[in-house]
Automatic annotation (TrEMBL):
Record region (Disordered): 107-129
Protein name: Helix-turn-helix domain-containing protein
Length: 129
């Protein structure tokens, strides 16, 4: 898998506990909901994040509910790091392209790349003409 960007504050503890790939799978599958760790959802949880990550969650949370963050800005950055376009990242994260652009403006583009500007747009500060 592509190296994922550093986590945003919203998802940092979860990424530290189970790793970025498992955290991304969890927020994609259950973001914005609660999942009961170590109980009736433990099999489902292991299917989503893997046995080791599920065990780490159980060790940390016991038999409690875990509120899974949506982590939309981090997800957007992950999708961009995977090579998706801004439009595809927006679609996959369930947000607008403006949200993608705000995430890039706030956290930077993964890999330090700048968003590509349209070649048809004139530079209003160009003094060559």
């Amino acid at each position: 898998m592509t190296a994922l960007p550093p986590p945003t504050d919203e998802i940092a503890r979860l990424v530290e506990l189970i790793g970025p790939e498992a955290a991304l799978r969890l927020v994609e599958a259950r973001g914005g909901t609660r999942i009961y760790v170590g109980g009736r959802d433990s099999g489902v949880l292991a299917e989503i994040v893997g046995v080791d990550a599920a065990a780490a969650l159980h060790a940390r949370y016991g038999r409690e509910d875990l509120k899974v963050p949506i982590a939309r800005p981090w997800r957007v950055l992950c999708y961009l790091a995977m090579g998706l376009s801004q439009e595809a990242a927006a679609l996959k994260a369930g947000c607008s392209r403006n949200t993608v652009q705000r995430a890039v403006a706030e956290f930077g583009h993964p890999g330090g790349r700048q968003p590509r500007q349209s070649s048809s747009q004139l530079d209003m500060f160009d003094k060559t003409g």
